[in-house]
Amino acid sequence: MEELILQGETVDDLQNGYRIIQKSHAFRFGVDAVLLSDFADIRHGHSVIDLGTGTGIIPILIYAKKKPSEITAVEIQQDMADMAERSMKLNGLGNNIKVLCMDLKDAPVLLGKARYDCVVTNPPYVKKECGINNPSESKAIARFEIMCSLEEVLITAKELLKPGGKLFMIHRTDRLADIICEMRNAGIEPKRIRFVHPSTGKRPNLLLIEGARGGNKELKFMDPLYIHDENGEYTEEIHRIYGRTRG
């Protein structure tokens, strides 16, 4: 499998039987992808699409835990999509996860409207006008709304979802008002929110949110999720999410 790894790339063990190819000095997945894949209520038989898949981490984690019948991974950056495709081959998942290099905004027309049971997305968190050092870098595209806005992601998600289908997203807490407004404007009703705290005693900086296409107006707040405990160690729930056993 050495031919799948290019110069400047690493192969990282996900500790679940799968591996992922990433660049040594470019965008690399973080805890947000792991939290989202655990939060998403995806089941066997579901059809799933990941909007802005990057190197394909979320589809791999979702397949490892939940084995949906179909996963499509959409990524606009050719080099990232290529890495994702090679990671699927590395793991023998080429028949389970389809990677497409395309603009997510084109997905409803090219892939079909009202086709998917679930949409997952870890979109860029920061508005474009907040300042970009180098918009050509993959890190900037992953972090700033350069190629797509929150509004465009949610409109696309609504068009891709079957009636009653679910959206699962992770985002920053300072965008909460935007998120709820844009979800409702797109026809996706917020259903569940879970705030993510860096540690006990600190304010949340991330949120996990579930919405339903055409759902009833009922929003539930889940118990908070803490990454670290008062001693700076990972909490028991984070160990569970990562699938780690405590010694």
Short description, anyone?
The chain has 247 residues and is of the alpha/beta class. The protein has eight helices and eleven strands. Strands 3, 4, 5, 6, 7, 8, 9, 10 and 11 form a nine-stranded mixed beta sheet that branches. Strands 1-2 form a two-stranded antiparallel sheet.
Would you kindly provide a written description of the structure presented here, covering whatever features stand out?
With 247 residues, the protein is an alpha/beta fold. It has a single domain (2-242), classed as Vaccinia Virus protein VP39 (Rossmann fold). The chain contains eight helices and eleven strands. It has helices at 31-39, 57-66, 78-90, 107-111, 138-143, 150-160, 176-186, 236-242, and strands at residues 9-13, 19-23, 47-51, 70-75, 97-101, 116-121, 161-172, 188-199, 206-213, 220-221, 225-228. The strands form two sheets. Strands 3, 4, 5, 6, 7, 8, 9, 10 and 11 form a nine-stranded mixed β-sheet that branches. It has a two-stranded antiparallel sheet with strand order 1-2. A hairpin with a 5-residue loop joins strand 1 and strand 2 (19-23). Helix 1 packs parallel to helix 2 and helix 6 (150-160) runs parallel beside helix 7 (176-186).
